[in-house]
Specification:
By secondary structure, this protein is an alpha/beta fold. The chain is 49% helix and 15% strand. It has 15 helices and 10 strands. Strands 6-7-5-8-9-10 form a 6-stranded mixed β-sheet, with helices on both faces. Helix 4 packs antiparallel against helix 5, helix 8 runs antiparallel to helix 13 and helix 13 packs antiparallel against helix 14. The radius of gyration is 29 Å and the shape is flat.
Length: 432
Amino acid sequence: MARSAIAVARISGREALAIARRVAPGLPEAPAPRTAGLVELRDAAGEPFDRGLVTYFPTPASYTGEDVVEISFHGNPVLSRTLLASAQAAGARPAEPGEFSRRAFLNGKLSLLEAESVAELVDAATETAARGALARLAGRGEREIAPVRDALLTAHALWTAAIDFPEQAGEEDPEEIGRQLDSAAGTLARLAAGSEIASRIASGLRVAILGAPNAGKSTVFNRLVGYDRAIVAAEAGTTRDTLEADVEIGGLPVRLVDTAGMRETGSAVEAEGVARAREESRSADLALWVHDAVEPWDDAARRAWNALESSCKLLVFNKIDLAAPPGETGSLGLSAISEDAAGRLSVEIGRRLAVEFPAEAAGESVSRRQRDLIVRARDAARRAKEALGGREPAEIAILSVEEALAALSDLVGESTTEDVLDRIFARFCIGK
C-alpha cells in the first residue's frame, strides 16, 4: 500500500451496509443513497482510528449491481490496514483481482468488452491510450458489433427460410445474402486491422535511432529522453549495445532505441552491436537515420539510407551548426545540441507515426482475446460468402454463419466460459 492523500475502501454484496455499519457505527440505519456522510471509523476492537466519508449505493444502481458502500479516509497505509482488518472482522473478505468488475459483468452492468476496458484504462500509459480505453468503456465496441450481428442474422434467416419453408419463402436470394455477408465481413476486416494497430499503440511503438558512428545518435536519444541517458563521447563506437527508454511523442507511447554505429569493424563486441542495430532497423515501427552533416552525403551514404527496410523512416542531418545540410527531400536538418532539437524531432516523429498509427485507432479492441475472436468471425463470414459463390448447399454455408455469430457472442461475453472469465479478470488490479 502506498501513502496518499485519500484511500477508498469498497464493500459489495448483500451484507455491505451491515458490515459498513460495524466499521462506522455512526452510519444511519437508512443512509441517503449516493450521499457522502462524515462518520467515525472504528477498528476491530471498537476503538476509533480515523474519520471518513461513507457513501451508500443501493442495488441495482451501483457499479457491481449489488449493494455497495465506499469509505473514503486518510491515505496512510497504517489506516488502510486497520480498516481492512476491521471490515474482515465484521464479516467481509478481501476481493479477488477484478472481482468488482466481474460482478458488474455478471449482473449485467457491463459487457465483457466494457469490463476489459476498465483494466485498459487503469493501465493506460498515455493520453491516447486512455482515450481509447474510455471509448471502449463507453460502449464503442458494442455499437460497432451490433450491425455486424444484424447482417449475419439476416443472412442466416434468409438461408434458413429457403431451406425450411421453401413454399412460403421461395428460393434463396443469393444477391441479398451476399450483400449481408459482404457488409459483415467488411466491417470485421476493418475492426481486425484497427485492433492490430490499437494493440501496437498500447504496447508502445519502437523508434530505432540508427546511423554511422559519431553521427550524434546518442545525443539525439538524450534530447528526446530529456536527460543524459546515453554516454556521449568524441570517440567513435561508444555505443556497443542497444539502449532503450520510454517516452511519449504526439500522444503515443514510444520506446526509443539507441543503437551502435553501423560500420564494418574487427571488434567482436562492436560487431554484435552492429548486428543488433540492423535487427532493430528491420523491426522498428520508425527508423530514424542520423547522418553527420559534416560528412559527405555521397552514394555510399545514400545506399545505407535506402537499404533500411522499414516502411516508416526519417532522415535527420545532424550538426547543421557546423555544416549546411544537403537538400534531400523529406529530411530534417537540426543541431542535436540546440534547445529546440527535442521539440522539432518530436513533432516530425509524431507526424510520421500518426500516418501509420492514427490516434483514433486506439479506440479499437486491444486484447489478444478480442482480436482472435474478431478474426475468427471475419474468416467465417468470408467462408460463408465463398460457399454462396460456389453454390454449395445452404446447410454448409449456414455453419460458417453460425461460427461467426458464436465468435461474436464470445466477444461480448454472452457465451464465455468460467475459465476464460478467470483468465480475463485475473489481470485486473485489486479493487477493480
